[in-house]
Design goal:
- Helices cover 82% and strands 0% of the residues.
- It folds into 2 domains: 371 residues, Up-down Bundle (Growth Hormone, Chain: A), CATH 1.20.1250.20; 58 residues.
- The protein contains 18 helices and no strands.
- The longest helix is centred in the first third of the chain and has 32 residues.
- It has 447 residues and is mostly helical.
Length: 447
């Protein structure tokens, strides 16, 4: 999980250097970031099922090996299309690796031990983001042997090799669970993949292409495919199969609204990762190291609520998720207003980023505890996949939507402050919408 999260943050920090080094367009740059997250999101549920059917240890090792090879391919990429393809492969491998972690926590721990494990899970995500931000900035700024952004990906290779040895030696080999939980849903995978792809591509490429007719047709077909997905998954469930996106679980309001809130709040995080790096480096002329360190307050504060909220009752954690979305909105609103007032960087920006990170940490930990505690062990893989899919799917849409908004507003460094302020205020509105969804989940949890 640490490596998978590092790769999200480190790519955003390296984005301006990648654009300069490979001469990529804004759309290609967004695909470098979103391609990883898109395949991660689409394949998480299937990866969790593969863990059940083939064994968690085996699938974890396969995912880690693939991630290591794909990271090497990223670091050696000669052009934009190569890098995009390698990032897509890395996202798929990361999904296979990461999907086994949350499921394992649900199956191997219970009660207070599970609460502690989930708290540590949040801390690891926070530590990975901190490392990605700080290490990414240092590596890009150091320009080792004139390689600029490449070490940001190549650093995963020695880490992956060491972790492969450790995982091979120490991870327990649980037997596969073949009691129906490991069945695949190829139709669900195909429809969900097509729906997300047709949604993200026009959002990412539309600005560069001038929003031609195909972008609007793509968005319309994407909406229709999400409706088809619901019908397909209901039929899979009616035949006694295990659908990729289980309508029964999503039909439970406390779970459905909770997942929607999680997708919205996490989408704001991925959006700020992408737009903040562009704002600071291309807009204000700051170094990659400064850009990386600027968000450390956010990701450090994100890890604080994990150990604390893990001790609370299930419904109290859900209430904390609602409160966290409000704190997140306040942090974004504060950044937007301060930018318009002339505070473009420095201590105030980093403090408000810390406030927003604390709110996201409250929301993430609270919602994770609520959702994992809402089902029995035999549905562990389903909830693990749905939670991670909502998180990464929200990240894809957040990066594409708000990245496109920023690029549409900022054509010259002089426009960066105003453009970033508008993005932050839009993110505040999104966080408030997420708070309303979480509030709905709180009310539904009473029934």
């Amino acid at each position: 999980m640490f490596l998978a999260n590092v790769d999200v943050a480190i790519a955003n920090i390296a984005a301006p250097a990648i654009r300069a080094g490979l001469h990529t367009s804004g759309g290609e740059l967004e695909l470098v970031v979103s391609g990883y997250t898109l395949t991660y999101a689409v394949l998480l549920v299937t990866s969790a099922r593969l863990g059940q059917a083939r064994g968690y240890r085996r699938m974890f090792l396969a995912g880690l090996a693939g991630f290591t090879v794909a990271s090497l391919a990223c670091g050696l990429a000669p052009d934009g299309p190569w890098l995009i393809a390698a990032r897509i492969a890395a996202g798929g491998a990361a999904a296979l690796m990461a999907a086994q972690v949350l499921t394992g926590i649900q199956l191997d721990f219970g009660g207070r031990a599970r609460a502690r494990a989930l708290g540590l899970y949040t801390l690891v995500l926070s530590a990975g983001a901190v490392a990605g931000q700080s290490l990414g900035g240092v590596l890009v700024s150091a320009d080792l042997l004139g390689t600029t952004w490449r070490p940001a990906f190549l650093v995963n290779v020695p880490c992956g090799l060491v972790m492969l040895w450790l995982a091979w030696r120490y991870l327990p080999a649980r037997p596969p669970d073949r009691r129906g939980g490991g069945t695949m849903d190829p139709a669900g995978v195909a429809v969900l993949s097509a729906a997300l792809l047709l949604l993200v591509l026009p959002l990412v490429l539309g600005q560069d292409e001038g929003w031609p007719v195909w972008t609007w047709l793509s968005l319309a077909v994407s909406g229709a495919l999400f409706g088809v997905l619901w019908v397909v998954e209901r039929r899979v469930g009616a035949r006694g199969g295990r659908p990729l996106i289980d309508p029964v679980l999503l039909g439970r309001p406390a779970i459905g609204w909770g997942l929607a809130s999680q997708a919205a709040t996490t989408g704001t995080y991925f959006a700020i990762l992408f737009t903040l790096a562009l704002y600071l480096q291309q807009g204000l002329g700051k170094s990659a190291a400064y850009s990386g360190l600027a968000l450390v307050s956010w990701v450090a504060a994100f890890g604080v609520p994990g150990p604390v909220l893990g001790r609370l009752p299930a419904r109290a954690r859900l209430v904390a998720a609602w409160a966290g979305a409000i704190v997140l909105a306040a942090g974004f609103a504060g950044i937007g207003v301060s930018l318009l007032a002339g505070e473009t960087s420095g201590a105030l920006l980093m403090t408000l980023l810390g406030v927003a990170g604390l709110g996201l940490g409250m929301g993430f930990t609270g919602m994770l505890g609520h959702l994992t505690g809402s089902v029995t062990a035999d549905r562990a893989a389903d909830v693990s996949g749905l939670f991670n899919t909502a998180t990464r799917g929200g990240g894809v849409i957040g990066t594409a939507t708000f990245g496109t908004l920023y690029l549409a507003l900022v054509h010259h460094p002089s426009q960066a402050v105003h453009g970033f302020a508008v993005v932050c205020l839009a993110l505040a509105g999104t966080a408030l919408a997420a708070a309303a969804m979480a509030g709905r989940a709180v009310r539904m949890s009473k029934t």
